[in-house]
């Protein structure tokens, strides 16, 4: 499912049309929100540390293209990548996934 499909569904709902429950849509939308939260935190922390995408990629043994993908939230990365990000940026990343609760990603930077 892509962004244009989300926009279409949102506009249909805003226009008063009935939009059927779609668990696949809800799953993808939820994952995109988590990925965006993580991507924004990675970007902000990288900038705070004065690192380029290439610098962060080197710290993570990755590529600048992969860092760009993480920051632009194309998809939620695997836990192993999140762990490497946390180490490379000196972050604490808490992912809360519990039945019945809204999933959350909390990013904590060290106190200055």
What is the fold-level CATH name, i.e. the topology?
434 Repressor (Amino-terminal Domain)
The computed structural class is mainly alpha
Strand runs, count: 2
Query: What's the CATH architecture name?
Result: Orthogonal Bundle
**Spatial order of strands in the largest sheet:** 1-2
| CATH H-tier superfamily | lambda repressor-like DNA-binding domains
- CATH top level assignment: Mainly Alpha
Distance between the termini: 41 Å
**Percent of residues in β-strands:** 5-15%
**Estimated helix fraction:** 55-70%
The major pleated sheet works out as: 2 strands, antiparallel
| H and E string | HHHHHEE
- Domain tally: 1
Radius of gyration: 16 Å
Mean pLDDT metric:
82
Judging from the principal axes of the Cα atoms, what is the shape? elongated
Helix run count:
5
Low-confidence runs (pLDDT<50, min 5 residues)? none
Tell me briefly what this model is.
By secondary structure, the chain is mostly helical. The chain contains five helices and two strands; from the N terminus they run H-H-H-H-H-E-E. Strands 1-2 form a two-stranded antiparallel sheet.
């Amino acid at each position: 499912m892509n962004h244009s499909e989300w926009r279409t569904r949102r506009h249909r709902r805003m226009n008063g049309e009935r939009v059927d429950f779609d668990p696949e849509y809800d799953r993808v939308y939820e994952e995109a929100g988590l990925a965006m939260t993580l991507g924004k935190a990675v970007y902000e922390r990288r900038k705070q540390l004065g690192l380029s995408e290439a610098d962060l990629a080197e710290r993570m043994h990755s590529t600048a293209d992969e860092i760009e993908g993480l920051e632009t939230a194309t998809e939620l990365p695997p836990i192993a990548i999140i762990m490497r990000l946390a180490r490379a940026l000196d972050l604490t990343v808490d992912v809360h996934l519990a039945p019945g609760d809204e999933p959350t990603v909390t990013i904590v930077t060290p106190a200055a």
